[in-house]
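Q: Joint fold for the lines below.
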Amino acid sequence: MTFYPAAAPPDGDRRTAKQKIAAYLEPWLYSAPVLILIVAIMLVPLALGISYAFRDIRLLNPFSGAFVGLKHFRELAGDGAFRGALVNTLWWTFSSVILQFLFGLILALLLNRPFRGRALAQALCFLPWAVPSFLSGLDWAWMFNPVVGPIPHWLYALGILSEPSNILSDPETAMWGPIVANVWWGIPFFAITMLAALQAIPKDLYEAAEIDGAGPIERFRSITVPFLAPTMAISILLRTVWIANFADLIIVMTNGGPADRTQIVASYIFTQAFRRLDFGYASAIALVLLVLLLAYSMLIVVLRQTMLTRH
Amino acid sequence: MASITIQSITKTFGTVPVLHDIDLSIADGEFVVLVGPSGCGKSTLLRMIAGLEDITGGEIRIDGRRINEVAPKDRDIAMVFQSYALYPHMTVADNMSYSLKLRKTARERIAEAVGAAAGKLGLDPLLERRPKALSGGQRQRVAMGRAIVRHPKAFLFDEPLSNLDARLREQMRAEIKRLHKAIGATSVYVTHDQIEAMTLADRIVAMHGGIIQQVGNPLDLYDRPANLFVAGFIGSPAMNFVDGHCRSGAIETDDGSRIAVPGGIDLAEGQAVTVGIRPEHVRIVAGSGAGSYTARVDLVEPTGFGTIVHVRLLGQDLKIYTLERGAAEVGEPLHIALDGDRLHVFDRETTNRIG
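A: Joint structure:
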């Protein structure tokens, strides 16, 4: 074993206690500005929000604010509306993400091949992304309204509806309204990311595969998909978390109704906090949602890592 | 293996013509190199043979069968790309066997073919690696391996060595030549590098501006270039060109010097010509004599094996390639003589060779 004098002098450390403390603190002092910023901007609000979940905070009750322990969570465990919202969240999130992804990918594949007026078509396809979500929610709500909108009449003409009614007011079909609006609004995100990834694939590979004897489907399977896989994984992960938290369209179009059939966890939090003004209970629900999404993110990150190391 | 016949092929991109009425026939087992500067249409012609570009006009036949409308995969050709175009997510073995798998070849046959190709190219220890983990030269070998496993009728090479460093390029060049000798398959090779063209080709097709300038074996192109373009393109250092007119039986250059007309060439009095002189055919002589010229040395470039000497002569910067070291010093006068039989005379108007 080798001893380095600076690290461990055999005759003991001769520095004074003050010097030792200074040496120990030095790196922390250098990083202090950033650490203070992170704590102040990110951790303090997070901790406050989490603390609300264990306190009784109701805006209408000036005597509230006391620590209540796990009361909110016990309440939550027996809250049927919350369980319904969880199921709706799964339904809302996965059907939105899958449809957005599929249509986004198809759009990207179409836009990736050269044709006249491609630049204009690209600009038009990416337009929904620029529309504020509240506005697009209102738009779609009107389009589903048989009095002012055409969609119920079209669906009736196609024989899908037995009468031109508003699908948003039927508990069986209401969820499809916000999902359709969300898909329309979210396709450009996938189209942009997939198009960028598609354009990074060298054209030579497709030519080599064509000569090797691969047809269009085989070329898609053996070149396009492997090249897009990392982008697909990360964009689907991002979108899933995003959409699970995304209540704007639901609040605007159905407000969680009819009969809580479109209530997702995010809109339920909104309802608890801003309609019933029960911030404590809303924070408890938010904490549960946070834990679920964190678990999901970890799962995807691990999945992506194993995928990357395999390649 | 097969012959390839190209009949009055034309190609336009939109309204821009890139190939004009190309005729070429490639014999079974022949190694033909298409050479020319970038934009001359050589790669386009190769890609038309491969089926990666539409044929605007004319006809291409492989073994007598018209393939204009045949899909690339059914033409039974293999292509090696400049970028290698290896599938990055597949191992070397998978890259090489991909085309055979798609053709539903039996597993044992695939293993046999891949093994044989890997053996020929020294790829055995790399079979389980991915392209990412290979050097440029190894990737090049895999690209060739992918081509040879299938035993195609013809090999098409699109500037396959351009992405390699000079030393590796030399090595791979020799390897391609050896491989061609061993396999004997019909090969069409595109390059802008005239050394590659000279060393590899059975026959060179020199192209410029979408037109075939000359077809012939490498030494033909070097010894008897058909026009000014070929003369300037083939050979390094490049040929010297001196403009002049025929005046009373000799060529008078623009600065008033006279060059004797080589034997067997008839020139009309006053005809505008360009004389081509290869740097290696300019001799440095001991003293001034009949037919010799004296010039001051401008610049000396030693290349190790030989030396390139620039002199101011015949109204221009004339390059001399000599194997003698220390034959010239900058600023010193130099006596030189031209080899009469090795001069090339071109009509300046048509740019074609005279005689």
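Q: Anything notable?
A: The CA atoms of residues 55 and 68 of chain A lie 5 Å apart. The domain at 73-310 of chain A is CATH 1.10.3720.10 (MetI-like fold).
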